[in-house]
Amino acid sequence: MQPSWAVPIAFGAVFTFVLQALWTIGQALPVMPVQFAACCCCAIGFLPSGVVPAFLAARRDPQLTAGQGFAVAFIAVGIGAIVWAMLGALSASALDPQLIRESVEATQTGVPAEQRLSSEELDGLVAFLSGVLPFVPAIQAAVTTVLAGFVGMLTVGFAKRR
């Protein structure tokens, strides 16, 4: 009888959810070093999220293959990340184009005058960003999930070498 993957998947999903909550709180804090650390950790957040469920599954099932390690990590991180992706997509869909325009204009103040965007280019960029920004959390969750699956595959592969 095959050991169940339910516990590693559930633990990995909770771990991913809590890890993303900590990064979200860290990015919201007004302290710049904390924001920088949270931003850097988000870029490699798939590493611990992929290792944990795959390692737990490999300990429970000595016959676990690398492909199954991918599946365990993929499912666990996908479940944990989907909540944050949905919350991010819901909040991003309410972005005001005027706020986006002001943000882009504020970043232009440090750019030399001959390299600044023209009014038409600025309008096009604001229209593009208004259409794309609601999908960024879902894209981030998808990329994180796939990368965590590969990390899970590597984790099981290395665990089986011992």
In oligomeric terms, what are we looking at?
single chain
Largest sheet: none
Please mark out the parts with pLDDT under 50 across 5 or more consecutive residues, or reply none.
none
Percent range of helical residues = over 70%
Overall radius of gyration: 20 Å
Structural class: mainly alpha
Strand content: under 5%
SSE string, helix = H, strand = E? HHHHHHH
DSSP strand tally:
0
Q: How confident is the prediction overall: mean pLDDT?
A: 82
- Span of the ends, CA to CA: 24 Å
Number of helices: 7
Query: What would you call the shape?
Result: elongated
Overall description:
The protein is mainly α and 162 residues long. The protein has helices at residues 6-28, 32-43, 46-60, 66-92, 97-107, 119-132, 136-161. It has seven helices and no strands. The radius of gyration is 20 Å and the shape is elongated.
